[in-house]
Amino acid sequence: MADLHIDGVVKSFGETQVLKGISLDIRHGEFIALVGPSGCGKSTLLRIIAGLESQSAGDIVIAGRSVAGVRAADRNLSMVFQSYALYPHLSVADNIAVPLRMRTMGAVQRLPLVGRWMPGAAERNREIDAEVRKAASTLEIETLLDRKPGQLSGGQRQRVALGRALVRDPAAFLLDEPLSNLDAKLRVQTRGEIAELHRRLGATFIYVTHDQVEAMTMSSRIAVMMEGQILQCDAPDLVYEDPEDIRVAEFIGSPKINILPAELNGGSLRVLDRDIARLTRVADQPGIRLGLRPEALRLSGADSVLTGVVAHHENLGSEVFAQIEVPGLSERVVLRADPSARRRLGLGATVGLDFDIGDALLFDTSGKRLRPVIEAARAAHQVA
């Protein structure tokens, strides 16, 4: 059992601080995704955990032991890189065996010609071969062991990289954008395979990605990072449904959440000069923002909160997305609707939109979440 604790980690490159006091507890067996836009510091944090970068301040504790100053090779962690980092001149079997040979065999024993004749080398090679075949069986790549990386597909090379990590029996697997070099169809297949591997092994996975879909579908918790900080770390459903910060709400979710300008005055919540609810336990303030997921909106009849014109629509078969231009709003509102609504969402059609105030997310001027109590809401007019 190996819990991992990140305690106040700071990283600076010159005068630029890329990690700003990151703290995070990762329990043994978790699949945690570090997700955020490029440049947010997620890969730097992973490299610090691995021992490939040193932190400017703070500590990494693995299984109750600080690893400050401990070499990467001695941290009992396995890292899978975006580029796979396979040796092109070695077979798949030899690529997977590299960490075992480096850890358990002397320099002379590893020599290609004379090493096999050294005392103990033959027995150790048999043990390594058995471990390589066990990992290959787990990843279903037994038939590839004699091939070279150049003869493999992208997905097969990814499995080999995972196999090389697997044979080390690490305290945690560190994966840095491992699917970014695969095409869209193969990414979907491989992310399922990685999630299934995690379930079978019961090991700790720390997974870096900029792709929110990967984070949402694979992990038990998501740490959303921006500008060197963790904004929120929660289960995927909570991050989507209950974001603590407007930046989290805007980053997680596709299509992106709709953000409408609003204001609180005398306890009345106003959107586009219309009173839509009475709220308590929140101070009056102008310039707040109201967030609505595309599926929270519904087509309505007269007296809608929002009225606009369909500027674009996308029919995906199982659902329809419509972009609606609403007077008074600088950005189009996106609606996710059932296929039965297709005929009402033709280009140029005028439509009304309503929502339940309980489905709205409110944020203050700084972007922090507001959690008022709803005292009363206007009647919604929904068309069945």
From TrEMBL:
What domain of life does the UniProt record list for this protein's source? Bacteria
**Gene Ontology CC terms, in alphabetical order:** ATP-binding cassette (ABC) transporter complex, substrate-binding subunit-containing
Q: Does the keyword Nucleotide-binding apply?
A: yes
Question: Keyword annotations for this protein?
Answer: ATP-binding, Cell membrane, Membrane, Nucleotide-binding, Translocase, Transport
A Gene Ontology molecular function term of the record: ABC-type transporter activity
A GO biological process held by the record: carbohydrate transport
- Protein name stated in the entry: Carbohydrate ABC transporter ATP-binding protein, CUT1 family
